[in-house]
Write a structure and sequence with these properties.
binds 1,3,4-trihydroxy-5-OXO-cyclohexanecarboxylic acid, alpha/beta, globular, five-stranded parallel beta sheet, 4 helices, 5 strands
Length: about 150
């Protein structure tokens, strides 16, 4: 079972704090954490990050040809602007969960709209790292046969 994690602009620069973990955690720690979660669930993860909208569209299309089973995407700022990413997700038809580390509904007004939500089977916002883990569990349970 292959799951693709896609992170958009600046997520690689993010610093997180997580309950129960002292100090700040960086993007590489997020990937290590997700790698362990996936291995425990029998999932082969691929991780991809780009700051470029077209590159994100390319990787979504590539997932179709490589028969990826599910996508977990945090499109970052493109969430609020990108019809192209919405269309790519619709075009490939791979079950996708949208994740946001922060609670976008409690931030600036311009973050309230997501063009990505209608192309996804579920959205997790404001759970930090755990949002990605919840996404994996949801996709495995509802969209993948063992
Ligand atoms: C984000 C929320 C977006 O609004 C923002 O532009 C990001 C990160 C999040 O994970 O909370 O870059 O997607």
């Amino acid at each position: 079972m292959r799951f693709l994690f896609i992170n958009g602009p600046n997520v690689n620069m993010a610093r997180f704090t997580e309950p129960g973990v002292e100090g700040e955690i960086d993007y590489n720690a997020l990937l290590d954490y997700l790698d362990v979660c996936c291995q425990q669930m029998g999932i082969e993860p691929d991780f991809f990050q780009s700051n470029h909208e077209g590159t994100l569209v390319d990787i979504i299309q590539q997932a179709y040809y490589e028969k990826v089973d599910a996508i977990i995407i945090n499109p970052a700022a493109y969430t609020h602007t990108s019809i192209a990413i919405h269309d790519a997700l619709k075009a490939v038809g791979i079950p996708t969960v949208e994740v946001h580390l922060s609670n976008i509904s409690a931030r600036e007004e311009f973050r309230e709209n997501s063009y990505i939500t209608p192309a996804c089977v579920k959205t997790y916002i404001g759970f930090g790292f755990e949002g990605y883990e919840k996404a994996v569990k949801h996709l495995k349970k509802h969209y993948c046969k063992d």
